[in-house]
Amino acid sequence: MGDAHQANFIAVQYLVLGGGSGGAAGSINVYSGSGGAAGVARSGTSVTQRARPQSLMVGAGSSGISRFNPVSGSGGSSSFSDNTATGGNGTANSSRVGGTNNDFSGGGNPGGSNSGGGAGAGANGSSQTGGSGHVSAITGTSVTRGGGGGGAMLGVGGAGGGGRASTAGAGGGTNGDVNTGSGGGGGNHTWTAWNGGSGVVIFSLSSTAIVTFSAGVTQTSAVVGTNRVYTVTAAGPTDTMTIG
Questions:
Q1: CB-based contacts of 163: which residues, under 8 Å, 6+ apart?
Q2: Res 240 pLDDT > 80
Q3: Could you give the 3-state DSSP secondary structure of residue 6?
Q4: Rg (CA), the chain
Q5: CB-based contact 153:165 (threshold 8 Å)
Q6: Which end of the chain is more exposed for a tag (fewer CB within 10 A), N or C?
Q7: How much is the pLDDT for 109?
């Protein structure tokens, strides 16, 4: 009886990153904008029931703001079953401190006309530089995801996909990389800042298991050793996966 009950459950390794927040534009002729924050990372192993739909959601990144929009939105939360990774918190034009998330802080005021880098999924932001992302080898090789956005001007995004800040005028900056949960780069005074990157859900389980998804899920998979690793790049609040 015990063996039959145990057969209804399977160990699933997971990595979940929330969406990154967009950067700020700063204050006209006073200082440039701060970098957006990465979403948080949640990882571990879940003992998951077979034949029972499990929730899946991939959080969107939020848009960078202009000087006409005082606060950016937060990145969206991502989830796998009961495991949720919140998005990066919104940035504000009234602050020169980089965006924060629920695990790490943004970089402080670096002085001059510059602003701080956003928090990463693995480290605090620093003076103009975004925090580094979360390192994981769930896909078979070590990959960093979830870098914080760089603070303008000239700030560098954190390792793992953080957006670069604007250099001059409207040019030179970048969005946070999609499906890494990275923060967007800060903007230069009057110009709109850069967008945060969408999150991602990655999970790994025995390659003998059969996994099905609801219609709204976008995913790819690959065999790694004795496991199959699924990377979910889009899923809405009602989407699910089921292990057969």
A1: 23, 35, 36, 130, 149, 150, 157, 173, 174, 175, 176, 177, 182, 183, 184, 185, 194, 195, 196, 197
A2: yes
A3: helix
A4: 19
A5: yes
A6: N
A7: 77
Do the beta carbons of residue 88 and residue 39 sit within 8 Å?
A: yes
- pLDDT tens, residue by residue, 181-223: 999 999 987 678 999 999 999 999 999 999 999 999 999 999 9
Tell the burial category of 69 from Cβ atoms under 10 Å away from its Cβ (0-12, 13-18, 19+).
Answer: middle
Structure tokens at 216: 């709204």
Identify the band that residue 6 occupies on the pLDDT scale cut at 50, 70 and 90.
low
Query: Which amino acid belongs to residue 46?
Result: S
Q: Dump pLDDT digits (tens) for 40-62.
A: 999 999 999 999 999 999 999 99
Please identify which residue in the block is written with the tokens 């003998």.
208
Number of domains making up the chain = 1
pLDDT tens string 152-171: 888 999 999 999 999 876 67
Q: Which residue range(s) make up the domain with 209? A: 1-244
Q: How far apart are CA 101 and CA 113, in angstroms?
A: 24
Q: Which helix (H) or strand (E) holds 3?
A: helix 2-6
pLDDT at 39: 98
Between CA 81 and CA 232 the distance in angstroms is 13
Structure tokens at 62: 């939020």
Tell me what pLDDT residue 76 has: 98
- For residue 119, count other CB atoms closer than 10 A to its CB: 38
Phi-psi region of 225 (alpha: psi -120 to 50; beta: other; left: phi over 0): left
DSSP run (H or E) holding 80? strand 78-80
Within the chain, what is the greatest distance between any pair of CA atoms? 73
